[in-house]
From TrEMBL:
Organism (species): Vallitalea longa
Subunit record text: Homotetramer.
Name of protein: Single-stranded DNA-binding protein
Superkingdom as given in the UniProt entry: Bacteria
Annotated Pfam families: SSB
The UniProt record lists the keyword Ligase: no
Alphabetical UniProt keywords: DNA-binding
GO CC term (a single one): nucleoid
Region listing for Disordered, in residue ranges: 101-139
Any GO molecular function: single-stranded DNA binding
InterPro entries cross-referenced by the UniProt entry: NA-bd_OB-fold (IPR012340), Primosome_PriB/ssb (IPR000424), ssDNA-bd (IPR011344)
UniProt-listed GO biological process terms: DNA replication
Compositional bias per record (Basic and acidic residues), positions renumbered to this chain: 103-117
Length: 139
């Protein structure tokens, strides 16, 4: 049995392409950051897992999945090989999705993004604070 179940956050917007067949098929590629259970130096470690969603799942991903969103994926592990331009054999592990879904509500995702955006706004007006306690000229 080859079955993978993941819950994590998208590291960036999914890349979606369509096949060049008579009836184009959506192929969405994206990376999921999945937290590990143990912590190193107080920080949670994550695995970054490549996901491929094809067909209707690919269309769903294209329409609804956004960077930072927590999603759940059910699929199968696929390992493939290719030869790079130097003739070296490379191995790629990826999960081919069979089911994709949201793992958080739209309102909690939007609330988290709004809080993140408001905390990143700075009061940078281009001026540098000057210590006025020193009576000597600055030159």
């Amino acid at each position: 049995m080859n079955k993978v179940i993941l819950v994590g956050r998208l590291t960036k917007e999914p890349e979606v392409r369509y096949s060049k067949s008579q009836k184009p098929i959506a192929i969405a590629r994206y990376t999921l950051a999945v937290n590990r259970k143990y912590k190193r130096e107080g920080q949670p470690d994550a695995d970054f897992i490549n996901i491929v969603s094809i067909g209707k799942e690919g269309q769903f991903v294209e329409k609804y999945f956004k960077k930072g969103q927590q999603v759940s994926i059910v699929g199968r592990l696929q390992i493939r090989t290719y030869d790079d331009s130097n003739g070296n054999r490379k191995w790629i592990s990826e999960v081919i999705s069979e089911e994709v879904d949201f793992a958080e509500s739209k309102s909690s995702y939007e609330k988290r993004n709004k809080e993140k955006a408001s905390s990143s706004v700075s009061n940078d007006d281009g001026f540098v604070p000057v210590d006025e306690s020193d009576d000597d000229p600055p030159f």
